[in-house]
Amino acid sequence: VRIGVFGVGNVLLGDDGAGPSVIHWLESHYEFPGNVEVEDLGTPGLELLAHVAGHDVVIFVDAVAEDAAPGTVRVYDRDAIIDAQPVLRIGPHDPALGDTLQALEFASQGPQLAMLVGIVASSLTSGVGLCREVRNALPEAARVVITELEKLGVNVSDRLNTTETPWWWQGEETSQ
Amino acid sequence: MSKRIVIDPITRIEGHLRIDVDVDGGQVNKAWASSTMWRGIERILVGHDPREAWLYTQRFCGVCTTVHALASVRSVENALDLDVPLNAQYIRNLIMISHALHDHIVHFYQLSALDWVDVTQIPKADPAKAAAVAESLSGWTRNSKEEMKAVQDKVKGLVASGQLGIFSHGYWGHPAMKLSPEVNLLAVAHYLQALEYQRYANQAVAILGGKTPHIQNLAVGGVANAINFDSPQALNLDKLYNLKGLLDKVIPFVQDVYFNDVCAIASFYPEWFSYGAGVTNYLSVPDLPLDEKSTKFAMSGGTIMNGDFASYKPITGPKDEYFRKGVTEDNTHAWYEGSGGLHPWEGKTEPQFTEWQEDAKYSWVKAPRFEGKPTQVGPLANVLTGFAAGDPLTKKWATAALERVAKISGKNVTPAVLHSTLGRHAARAIRTAVLADLANQQWELLINNITKGDTRTFNQPTFPKGEIEGMGFHEAPRGTLSHWIVAKEGKIKNYQAVVPTTWNASPRDDKGNPGPYEASLLRNPVADPEHPLEVVRTVHSFDPCMACAVHVFNPQGKNIAKVKVL
């Protein structure tokens, strides 16, 4: 079983960096078996096709715009991802999570299982760094991903030495 | 009475491209292009080490990652007058070509083709006839009757289920759809194959760049790849032949399939060679450097003004003052302080948001101008300037495209038809075919240079005291990209990226001249204001990439308006 855990979002736009930050958290706290790819994909749009194809299971991690407190973690299934796509596309960007899944399904190359672990965002303005609520939610979002992987029978182990080197984009917390 | 149509596909907290058109008598008589999103990412770079800027700039946009990384390191090398070793030039060139092949294939099949292809006509097609049409176009081996039948069955299943899935947002049955059922079938068969071939192009980028979408191997002064044929970790023969294997799969797909599909589709829509010209001042920059000082290039660049080939003026390289002095950005109609053209090194990005005001400020995109004039960039500019410069590969593929369209449509087709909506698609296919030939050339240059014993990939940069200025450009998939840097004592003082979509989606300027999107929409037909397929066709032909930014998933996205007729 090939599994992809993909963080999406723009680390230069405040809380939109939640997805890549969860990936960083996962990589520094856990070890994954060889069939699990854990990747920060940035804001790939339809370029997602190249990364999602060939996986049996895909777990996206992304900032979400929901009517809930910033930092709330929610899980969305495949249908919710597809329902949320724009009705009319102008550019190649529109989140394209749903487009990617549907295009690959039509080509019989899609994952059998797809879900999205979302963190409710607060501020998406230009700047590096997450707000306190989203930053504090990273471990919970990471645990949700681990729980989903364990349900699939994946053996994830804790890293003996947590290597929490900050990534280049991780600036100071922004004040809210 | 004119009718205002607003196309505003806001899908998240902040939107991106909004198009407003006034339609009168079935055609557009006024148009505005507006970005509804703040683009001030460059300000984050101030105070950082110029050697690290590329790590940030490749996060500007998820579709155009590598191009912003490359333009950034080039701008710093230019400021330092730093040479780049030959191997590094070739490795970068191969990354850029592979990225462009991937990008153009995805753009055409996944984003644009469905503006012209009507999936709902496919059940009526005769698979044998579709295979015969395909075989008349090229020797591609995956065009058999059986393959066509299998795709038709897939589509029939989708149509019968009532759930069109990936095809649910098309304008099916629109009167402007004109392909025969067989050509519709052929296009969707290749849409499916494109999903497979784009992956090979992406893998080619990853072999050289370490990974995608954010490559790891760039450095100011070269690349971080170590070349050693005896080391499994380094760039060795295995990896180079792996790369060649991937290119050998992608190149025929580009030249036998994508190129021919565009010609075939164009032949059914000859009227679209007469809509959408807009601004016919064109700009492209030379790229794929062939020497350490970046003075010789595999692709030429320059300008053409007023659509006149005789006006062609070359841009010889990043040191050419014609380009360096020609670029300004104007904020008269953009939501920033100030008006009048400013050179990027003096550029200011201080927001001044107002409401959307058609006679005042209405966009977050600035208005770049070349020598004060609105200017179109992109594959069309690239092909036209290459043609005017006498570039043999551009001539070869441009001539092939025009001859092919003439043959299928039975109409006389001259290079002048390229100034159009369909011309932009044709030019993108021509450019992709040229790049496919250049991929082989660059691969051979790299391997020959290494075999000669040169394994250098990096020159160490040193920063002088005081202030330095630099400019790095790249002829990216969407057109001319330039990064402009001012650094002082090893820290960034000002940074401006003038991106292709800014040139094309620019608002009006201080003289009231509209940008390329706006001008191209004038006199576009609109058969049904509720379903402005024709407007979308012209906008898509530019391959817009506005949302170099937010990627928030919005579970309520579907409820937000898409097209409003006022």
How can the largest sheet of chain A be summarized?
5 strands, mixed
Distance separating the two termini of chain B: 12 Å
Oligomer designation: heterodimer
- Distinct helical segment count of chain A: 5
Contiguous uncertain segments of 5+ residues of chain B: 9-15, 548-552, 556-562
Strand order of the largest sheet of chain B: 3-2-1-17
Describe the structure.
The complex is a heterodimer of chains A (176) and B (566). By secondary structure, chain A is an alpha/beta fold. Helices cover 30% and strands 22% of the residues of chain A. In chain A, α1 (18-29) packs across α5. The longest helix of chain A has 20 residues, at 132-151. Residues 172-176 of chain A have low confidence and may be disordered. With 566 residues, chain B is an alpha+beta fold. In chain B, 39% of the residues lie in helices and 15% in strands. Chain B is built from 14 helices and 17 strands. Chain B has helices at residues 53-57, 65-80, 86-112, 127-137, 145-161, 181-209, 237-268, 321-326, 379-388, 392-409, 421-451, 500-504, 516-521, 533-541, and strands at residues 3-7, 17-24, 27-35, 218-219, 222-223, 282-284, 287-289, 297-299, 301-304, 313-315, 327-330, 341-342, 367-370, 467-476, 479-488, 491-498, 563-565. In chain B, the strands form six sheets. Chain B has a four-stranded antiparallel β-sheet with strand order 3-2-1-17. Chain B has a three-stranded antiparallel β-sheet with strand order 6-9-10, with helices on one face. In chain B, α7 runs parallel beside α10 (392-409). Chain B is globular, with a radius of gyration of 23 Å. The termini of chain B are close together. Residues 9-15, 548-552 and 556-562 of chain B have low confidence and may be disordered. At the A-B interface, β3, α2, β4, α3 and α4 of A face α3, α6 and α14 of B.
